[in-house]
Amino acid sequence: MRNIAVMLATAGMMVMGQGAFAQDDPNITVAYEEDGRYFTDDGIPTYFVDEDGTVDWLTFSGFRRYHSECHVCHGPDGEGSTYAPALKNSAVDMTYDDFLYTVAAGRENGNSVMPQFGDNLNVTCYIDDIYVYLKARGTDAVARGRPAKKQAKSEAIAEDEDACMG
C-alpha cells in the first residue's frame, strides 16, 4: 500500500497460468512478495492467484473497494457502462503512475468527466488494492463476482490501513 503522500507525489509529475497474458509478461508477473503484497520486477503492485483460485488479500480488498466507490459509474467488475469506460482495461493498458494520477486528479474527455478522488481516503488508502483487482480482471485471472477464496490480511497491511485511515 502506498501512502497518500506518495500517491499525490506521483500524481504531480503473475499470473499462475491464468488469463490472456503470458506468464512472463513483466507488467503482470509476480517477481517478489512483501508482507502479503505482490510486485513486478520494477516494484509495481500486481496480483497473485493461487492454482486453487485463492487470491491475494489486496485483490480481494480491491474487489470490495471497487464496488463501494467505482462501480456506480464504471459498471460491475470493471466491465464499463454506457456512462464510463471499463477500468479493467485501464489497469492493464495504463502505467501505474498514470492510473494513480487519473484517480487522484480526475480527468475530462469531452462530455465525460472522471471526478478526482485524491481527497477520498476510501480510495487513496486502498488505491493499490483497486489497481491490482482491476489488473486481475483485465487479464481474466479473476472472474466476475466476489472472489471465493482469499489469503489472510497480513499484519503489515492492517497496520498500513490503520495508519492511512487515521
Enter the CATH topology name.
Cytochrome Bc1 Complex, Chain D, domain 2
> Number of domains in the coordinates?
1
The largest sheet, given as strand count, sense and whether it forms a barrel, is: 3 strands, antiparallel
What is the percent of helical residues?
Answer: 40-55%
Contiguous uncertain segments of 5+ residues: 1-22
The radius of gyration is 15 Å
Beta fraction: 5-15%
- Number of strand segments: 5
- Termini separation comes to 15 Å
On the 0-100 scale, what is the average pLDDT?
82
Organism: Yoonia sediminilitoris
Signal peptide: 1-22
GO molecular function, one term: electron transfer activity
Domain Cytochrome c: 61-125
Walkthrough of the structure:
The chain is mainly α and 166 residues long. The protein has a single domain, classed as Cytochrome Bc1 Complex, Chain D, domain 2 (Orthogonal Bundle). 42% of the residues lie in helices and 8% in strands. The chain contains eight helices and five strands; from the N terminus they run αβββααααββααα. The strands form two sheets. Strands 1-2-3 form a three-stranded antiparallel sheet. Strands 4-5 form a two-stranded antiparallel ribbon. A hairpin with a 2-residue loop joins strand 4 and strand 5. The longest helix is centred in the middle third of the chain and has 13 residues. The protein is globular. The two termini are 15 Å apart. One of its GO terms (molecular function) is metal ion binding. This is Methanol metabolism-related c-type cytochrome. Pfam families: Cytochrome_CBB3. Keywords: Heme, Iron, Metal-binding, Signal.
